[in-house]
UniProtKB/TrEMBL annotation:
The lineage of its organism: Bacteria, Bacillati, Bacillota, Bacilli, Bacillales. Keywords: ATP-binding, Nucleotide-binding. PROSITE patterns: ABC_TRANSPORTER_1 (PS00211), ABC_TRANSPORTER_2 (PS50893). It comes from Psychrobacillus lasiicapitis. InterPro entries: AAA+_ATPase (IPR003593), ABC_transporter-like_ATP-bd (IPR003439), ABC_transporter-like_CS (IPR017871), P-loop_NTPase (IPR027417). This is ABC transporter ATP-binding protein. One of its GO terms (molecular function) is ATP hydrolysis activity. Residues 2-232 form the ABC transporter domain.
Amino acid sequence: MLQAIDLHKKFKTKEAVRKVNMQLEAGESVGLLGPNGAGKSTTISMLSSLIMPTNGEVLWNNVSVNKNPEALRKALGVVPQEIALYPELSAKENLHFFGRIYGLKGQLLVERTEEILQKIGLTDRKNDIVKTFSGGMKRRLNIGAALLHNPSILIMDEPTVGIDPQSRAYILDTVKQLVEEGMTLLYTSHYMEEVELLCDKIYIMDQGEIIAYGTKETLKSLVSDNQTIELKAHILSQKFEEALKKYFPTANIRKEDEILLITMPQNEEPLATIFAIAAKNAVTITSAIVKVPSLEDVFLHLTGRALRD
């Protein structure tokens, strides 16, 4: 559906993006993950035909966007990182303005405006001036403007930056609903948990390059296929540890301070057995936490630093 082939972008002497290859199929939800300055916004600007690549090509349904951007632009909705609204107009007036740009008019424009206001939860504020809105409300309206023309693909560039947790949760719920309805989505963020919640396939970007891609499970397997169980108990007896080692001979069992750590493959479900062994050895477990590799672990593994460093 949308494909990037060896995209490269240079601004004077700065290489912002180097040899980026990406692909989105119809109905896919794809995440582009990376820290600030990784090249995410430059990449999606090229994918959406806003800027031309220095080298490389973007294809929309196998047609070059570099040479013919109009087909993509008609099918595309873009939610930019910066708020792109007219603060002196009302929510409804903003939507009418952007709807007309997309070619909507008459009763269709009125109906689509009302549908979008309901979807983004701003029906009761539709006649209020946008400059009176909170940051979260402005971001919701920003999303609404991109949805007016029923796009077949939506690109969202960090749509939850700088807003309160309640507004962020509302936006994520809205985007999740769009994904469940079959929207093709490219979602950029430096929040691991957002991409993990919304996206089927993930590209990880750093310093202008794609350094890894795949499903969440594939990426996490780069770190480990293991899980670690953290156990706390009133008394962690030596007899209990020896019983666990006997029952799980391939597990790595070690004690750190007052916590017993058991590392084993993720395909095993050991908790019921662990609790049974504990009861047999008169050990009362007070806490059991199962930890599996996260996308944060993947990023640390690939770059040697945390995502927000």
